Structure formats: C-alpha cells, structure tokens
Amino acid sequence: MKAIIRTINGNKPDSPLERRAIGQGNFLAAVLPLVLAMGLLWWPFGGAHKVIMTAASTVPSAKGTVYVSHDQNKNTKVDMKVHYLAHPSALTPVESVYVVWIQANGHSPKNEGELRVDNNLNGEFKAPSPYKQFTIFVTAEKSVQVRAPEGQQVLTATVAE
C-alpha cells in the first residue's frame, strides 16, 4: 500500500521534490522545539567550565558556583552565582558587605567588587580576568573599598583551565 501525500491545498504533490519537502517540513516541525529547548538551556553558560565553591563553616548552607568562559580577546569571563548566603549583617562578627577577590599564583588578591545578596539569599557577580588559573573567594568586610582581605572568608574556589 502506498501512502498518499497531500499538500496544504489538498492536491497530491506533483514531483518527488515536493513530496520530499513536505516530509522535511514534518521533520523540522518535530525537531525544532527540541533544538530550541537545548539552545535555551545551553545559552546562559554556553561552553562555560563549572567550578563548585566551598563554603566556610560559618555559612554551612551557602552554595556557590563559578562559571568560567572566555571572551573574544581570550580573557577569562567569571560568572559567580550564590544561593543561601546569609546577609553579612547576620554573621558574627557583623559585617557590611561581601567582597569578591581573585588571586593568581604569585600575586596579591585583587578586590573585584561587591557581591550583593538579595532578600532570597541569592546573588550573582560577573567580572573579566586576565588569568587562566586563580583562586576566587568571597570575604565579609566592613567596606567594599578594602585593599586586602580582612574579614572572614565565606566561599572559595580554585579555577584551573
């Protein structure tokens, strides 16, 4: 038995090419949602290397992940996401801000800026870095302008690509 293929207007396709195009349309309609879903899942971290951060005993429920990728100039792009990180004012001793530091081997730690935590105890921090291998860590500090880490370290990870 042969299956009869009909076009949108109800007529039988005239050529093998038309029949093939109709079949490809069905295939595309079936596969396109899957391709889009995969793209949306991959897009935020496309090609990024994932490094899990270690939480200090003072913030045992804190979770942190660093996603590392590269830009067109071969610089390292850092995207840190944290969850369940208590506000610095809830720590003992009480602090004002969280500061993100990047330290390459043989170099002093560099203050990269403030990590803000929202009311749901989540935060995100993004920064470029010229280093391929480094330690990234978060400290609780009295001020974001500190030149060297003084407060307690709450999260840390070593990035080595």
Description:
The structure is a single chain. By secondary structure, this protein is α+β, with helices and mostly antiparallel strands. Helices cover 17% and strands 37% of the residues. The protein has one helix and nine strands. The chain has two domains: 44 residues, no CATH class; 114 residues, Sandwich (Immunoglobulin-like), CATH 2.60.40.200. The protein starts with 15 loop residues before the first helix and ends with a strand.
What's the topology here?
Elements: H1 16-42, E1 49-52, E2 54-55, E3 63-70, E4 76-83, E5 97-103, E6 110-115, E7 123-129, E8 133-141, E9 153-160
Antiparallel strand pairs: 1-3, 2-9, 3-4, 4-7, 5-6, 5-8, 8-9
Give the N-terminus to C-terminus distance in angstroms.
59 Å
CATH topology of the largest domain: Immunoglobulin-like
Q: What structural category characterises the helix and strand content?
A: alpha+beta
Any low-confidence stretches, pLDDT <50, length ≥5?
A: 35-45
Secondary structure tally, helices: 1
Shape type: globular
Strand order of the largest sheet: 2-9-8-5-6
CATH fourth-tier homologous superfamily of the largest domain: Superoxide dismutase, copper/zinc binding domain
Give the C-level CATH assignment of the largest domain.
Mainly Beta
Number of domains: 2
Kindly state the percentage of residues in helix.
10-25%
Order of helices and strands: HEEEEEEEEE
Rg, Å, rounded: 25 Å
Strand-residue fraction? 35-45%
Mean pLDDT: 83
Corresponding CATH architecture of the largest domain: Sandwich
Biggest sheet features: 5 strands, antiparallel
What's the β-strand tally? 9
